[in-house]
Each structure stands twice: as C-alpha cells, then as structure tokens.
Specification:
The chain is an alpha/beta fold and about 325 residues long. The chain contains 14 helices and eleven strands. The strands form four sheets. The chain has a five-stranded parallel β-sheet.
C-alpha cells in the first residue's frame, strides 16, 4: 500500500514539475535513503516548486531559508529569548526545525552559518549556548546553488559538501516541455485542479526506508561499487588520465551514499535487487561534488562529469 502511494507521489511530482524527472527521482531517492541533496541550476527551474510539492505529498512541514551574506546562525537555528514576565530565557526555534528545508543559494551565507547548517545536516541536532536540541526525525535539506553568478558567494567547504548524499545539475527544458509549462501555469492561474495526492505518513516513510535497506546486492556488484570509489583514491591504477586529473578522491561516506542511493533507485523502480545501472546512474550525483580535481584537469577544461565517465570506462565489473 505504501509503495503504491509512493508511486502516486512520484506521478504527482512529475505532473507538478514538468521536464525535471531527474530532480523528482533524486528527491524521492534522498527521502528513501535519508540524505540531503544539493541542486545546481540557473534560476527558474522549479527547485522551490519541487520541494514544496514534495511537502504536499508527505506528512511534514516545509520552510524556505534565503541565504544572504548578512545571515546569522541564529536566523537559521533559533535563539534564546529573555521573557521579562518570568525572568527566564526561552529558546525560540528557528526555521531549521522543519521536516523539509530549502536552503536557497546556500553558498551566499558566511562560514558561521555554514557551520550551524553542517551540524544540523550531520548530527540532526542544533546547539545553542550549552544546550543541544534534536531536529525532527524526518529531516531533509535541499540546498541550491546558482552557477551563473559567483560574486559575493562563499564556496562550500569539502566537509559540508560531503554531507550531501547527491549533487544534482539541472538544465533548461526543451521547447515541447516549455509549452506544457505554459499550459500548466494557465491552469493554475485559473485555479483549475492540476493534480492531487494522498500524503504519506511518517511511519510509512520510515517503513519504506527499512525495505530499501533490505534490497539485495550481489557480491560482484558490491565489489564493483567499491572499485569505483577506490578509483578516485588510487587513480594511477586505472589509467594515466585519471592519474593526471584527480588530486583527492571520495571518502567512505561516498561508498555508503552510493550503496544507499543504488538500493533506493532499485526499490523505486520496483526491484528488490540492485542492477549495474542503479550504481552507474547514481555515480555522477554521488561523486561530482566529492572529487577534487588537479590543476592539470582544470587547465585542460576537464570537469567532474568527464572524470566520472572515465572512471566508468576504466573500472570493470568483476566476475
């Protein structure tokens, strides 16, 4: 029953966010794998609409935080407020205490705000003063970056990038999809019902996560998954190009992320076992923000996606 509702949610999201099926599936995979995602795209590609639509499909609340250079950690986490009538400090929760968080233009916030968000993402808690407050059990951050403008931005530290289970890159829709977007917008202006969905309960989501973790992976595919990550740490073993292009590879957190997302993708596609395509299709979003490329790669105009393609070309499936 829960799986049927998840399929309905997937259908609903694809009706509400046209031409962005990768974003829809990535959101659902992150939800099933209990992770956070980083989305990079030009403005206007329905990122806010996507996370908002997801909040309609689950038993959870949504909050958008606009990151700016003057943002303070307390603007995100909350702060202690002195109540004169009682003579005591009372903690007022900040916007981070919601189930779904849109961290809009996350790279515009300074280091202290990034640190506060890192604790929330990694530890599922917030510390204010000497007191630590737990975040909701169902907690997902979707952060966005605008690749077109870098002025006034603060590059995310590697430790924080590593906390995102996936890094998604979006591009503009084609002409046919653009026409459908116009029609959808017209319906919404006229207040016509576009689609509806029955929200998933938190207990159903937690149950689905348990089912995802029970998805089986054959030993040779497990070894293949490990070899793909090892290729980023020992690139010389897998060819001269990789040796020249990669300075630092992915951590064991990447291995765990690739395993979890591969299982989630398999389960989302009605399978209880992992196939090579589940691993390969997730390799790009799992690795592209975790690789540190060499000066030679940058000088040659090589990006992370090209490095990952070379890894796929060089690493064979054992057995």
């Amino acid at each position: 029953m829960a799986k049927q509702q998840l399929n309905q949610l997937r259908h609903y999201l694809n009706q509400m966010i046209l031409g962005q099926s990768e974003l829809v599936d990535s959101l659902l995979i992150a939800l099933l794998a209990d992770g956070h995602i980083l989305v990079e795209s030009p403005p206007g590609l329905a990122k806010t609409r996507a996370i908002n639509a997801l909040s309609d499909g689950i038993e959870g609340d949504f909050h958008r935080i606009q990151f700016t250079p003057d943002l303070l950690p307390s603007d995100v986490t909350g702060t202690d407020i002195f109540r004169q009538e009682t003579g005591q400090f009372i903690f007022e929760k900040g916007p981070i205490f919601h189930n779904l968080i849109l961290a809009d233009e996350i790279n515009r916030a300074p280091a202290k705000v990034q640190s506060a968000l890192l604790e929330a993402m990694a530890e599922r808690q917030v510390t204010v003063g000497k007191t630590t407050y737990p975040l909701p059990e169902l907690f997902l951050v979707m952060a966005t970056q605008n690749p077109l403008e870098q002025e006034g931005t603060y590059p995310l530290p590697e430790a924080q990038l590593d906390r995102f289970i996936m890094h998604i890159q979006l591009d503009y829709p084609d002409a046919d999809t653009e026409r459908l977007i116009l029609q959808l917008n017209q319906k919404e202006i006229l207040k016509e019902k576009v689609a509806e969905v029955t929200p998933l309960l938190n207990e159903q989501i937690f149950s689905m996560r348990e089912e995802v973790m029970k998805v089986t992976i054959a030993p040779h595919l497990e070894q293949y998954l490990i070899d793909l990550i090892i290729a980023t740490r020992e690139p010389a073993r897998f060819g001269e190009k990789l040796s020249q292009w990669v300075s630092y590879g992915a951590s064991p957190r990447a291995t765990l992320a690739l395993m979890r997302t591969a299982k989630a993708r398999a389960w989302l596609n009605d399978r209880d076992y992992v196939m090579p395509e589940d691993i390969i299709s997730n390799l790009y979003p799992v690795l592209r923000h975790r690789l540190i490329l060499s000066y030679e790669a940058e000088a040659q105009g090589v990006n992370a996606n090209q490095v990952i393609q070379e890894i796929i070309n060089q690493v064979a499936i054992a057995g």
